Amino acid sequence: MTEIVNYIIGFFLLAGGFLSLVASFGVLRLPDVYTRNHAASKSATLGIMCILLGTFLYFYIVHGIFNSKVLLAIVFIFVTAPVGGHLIARAAYHSGAKLWDKSVRDDLKDKEKYDRQHS
Amino acid sequence: MLEIIIRITLICVSLSMLGLIYRVIKGPTTPDRVVALDALGVNLIAIVALVSMLIDSDAFLEVILLLGILAFIGTVSFSKFLEKGAIIERDRNR
């Protein structure tokens, strides 16, 4: 029983570490703010949720401690990390961060003109 | 076996934090730095969880929730500052 649980916890931890490495690699390699934000806010969130789930299982099954704060932290990170990513991408767009020069379309650019025509 | 896995994961998370620190230092624009700092806070949560597993103590698990809340508040206030120039706006009808 404990051996199987050890395998499950190890899988969660390794998956979390790998996803966090992937997030860092994306932040290093991708060309502009929006793609970097995309990498950081998705992979890092999933990685941290895997690691926290492994921690919760470890303390629950190996030590018999039911720690509800870790569960609450998982839910909180799952709710707030995409919201933070959205806010910072919006702030980047409105403060004039350039898109990658190979990106093809920017629908938000014509928003002012569209609003003036249709109001 | 589990201890070795925890150590490997710690190394992975530390390498990822190093990459993010490079982006914080070099990042061309301010939103880049904010994105990288947000991800740094998230990775710090992972390090706290892993270390509390290594030393077999559940005394530091409150820190996880606290760091999550602080990282979110920091990101929101930074993005509000970048977008509007003020974090707490003044009420006009008073």
From TrEMBL, chain A:
The keyword Transmembrane helix applies. Its main location: membrane. Pfam families: PhaG_MnhG_YufB (PF03334). Keywords: Antiport, Membrane, Transmembrane, Transmembrane helix, Transport. It comes from the Bacteria. PANTHER family: ANTIPORTER SUBUNIT MNHG2-RELATED. Belongs to the CPA3 antiporters (TC 2.A.63) subunit G family. This is Na+/H+ antiporter subunit G.
From TrEMBL, chain B:
The chain crosses the membrane at residues 6-25, 34-55, 61-82. InterPro entries: MrpF/PhaF-like (IPR007208). GO terms for molecular function: sodium:proton antiporter activity. It comes from the Bacteria. One of its GO terms (cellular component) is plasma membrane. Keywords: Antiport, Cell membrane, Ion transport, Membrane, Transmembrane, Transmembrane helix, Transport. Signal peptide: none annotated. The keyword Membrane applies. It is a multi-pass membrane protein. The keyword Nuclease does not apply. Its main location: membrane. It is found in: Cell membrane. It holds the Pfam family MrpF_PhaF. NCBIfam families: PRK12600.1. Belongs to the CPA3 antiporters (TC 2.A.63) subunit F family. This is Cation:proton antiporter.
